[in-house]
Design a protein that fits this description.
- With 335 residues, the protein is mainly alpha-helical.
- The two termini are 30 Å apart.
- It has 16 helices and no strands.
Length: 335
């Protein structure tokens, strides 16, 4: 049975991803914050929102690690067709509305969802999906001391060599190496970290400190480093925020149902034709607003985009489920 406390986190994580895209990616962030920037409501509010929401991707992957990916032929087909449904579908509509040679070429490329995509998370997560049996097997009987050494080693690679020195192994966290790192941490939390509600205040305190550290780091590092997914402050905030939700225990059919389609929010809104339209619309309609009016408008806009994507995917599910079932049964008979 799905744990609604974690499924709620899945929903919040996707809302955070929307916030990141509709804050930093739409309105840009200062390279390095200066003290005088604190007097600008516009700049400070953007950096604060980015600091709060940058943990969305990490939390999303922590959930996968916490429960463990259980790869299967059907699961792989479902993921591929899920991504392809929106990539091909959206670019088909674009080609129909504006049939140029460039749009037709892009339509052909849209079938190549792992090699010709602007959505970095799709190929990176599928790579994690493929190698997850090896990771799961390796972590199955590992002792806590060995696991601690593994976490330390991966932190050295991803945070010290990657983030701090901007090494090619993982400079900003937008790759498979980052997902493996977070996945392993997620499994560690499941095995060794206490989720008793008596620890809730402790986790909240750590989260607030980590969140504050993210904001402070914007005065020390460029925004690409301060808001990198493998920043030590972002990782700490992600883990502590995740642990807060593990201290709750409740069941909600509504939350579980919405969370089932949460990934579609990313697939739909970040497809370049949709993304550029949404971003430009938000930017153009907010230029003459007061800070308070814009804040209300911005929050409403994000929830509307989220709800619309969920509803669209609810329509897709029964259509694609039958295709997934048939295709997976055929492939399983072959292999």
């Amino acid at each position: 049975m799905r744990q609604s406390n974690i499924e709620l986190l899945r929903i919040i994580s996707m809302l955070m991803i929307l916030c990141v895209h509709f804050t930093g990616a739409t309105y840009n962030l200062p390279q390095i914050m200066k003290l005088q920037d604190l007097y600008s409501i516009n700049t400070t509010s953007k950096v604060l929102m980015e600091s709060f929401s940058i943990i969305g991707v990490n939390c999303f992957v922590l959930i996968s690690g916490y429960f463990g990916i259980k790869p299967s032929v059907k699961g792989a087909i479902n993921f591929i067709l899920w991504c392809m449904f929106y990539a091909v579908g959206i670019y088909t509509l674009v080609a129909i509305i504006k049939p140029t040679s460039e749009n037709l070429s892009t339509l052909f490329s849209s079938f190549l969802i792992f090699s010709h995509t602007d959505l970095w998370f799709i190929p990176s997560y599928f790579a994690l999906y493929i190698i997850s049996p090896i990771i799961n097997k390796g972590l199955q009987n590992i002792e806590k001391e060995q696991y601690n050494l593994l976490i330390i080693g991966l932190t050295f690679l991803n945070v010290y060599l990657g983030w701090f020195w901007q090494g090619n192994i993982n400079p900003t966290g937008y790759n498979t190496m980052q997902l493996i790192y977070i996945y392993v941490i997620g499994k560690y939390l499941k095995l060794f970290i206490n989720s008793n509600k008596k620890y809730r205040i402790k986790y909240i305190t750590i989260y607030i400190c980590a969140l504050t550290s993210i904001f402070i780091s914007t005065f020390l590092f460029k925004s690409t480093m301060a808001f990198a997914y493998n920043s030590p402050f972002v990782i700490l905030a992600s883990v502590s925020f995740f642990l807060i939700f593990t201290t709750f225990n409740f069941h909600s059919k509504v939350i579980n149902s919405i969370a089932l389609n949460a990934f579609a929010v990313y697939l739909i809104h970040k497809m370049p034709p949709i993304w550029s339209t949404l971003r430009d619309f938000l930017y153009d309609t907010s230029t003459n607003m007061t800070p308070l009016s814009f804040s209300l408008y911005w929050v409403t806009f994000i929830f509307i985009v989220f709800a619309a994507c969920i509803l669209i995917d609810k329509i897709r599910m029964p259509i694609m489920n039958s295709v997934v079932n048939r295709l997976s049964s055929i492939i399983q008979r072959i292999i």
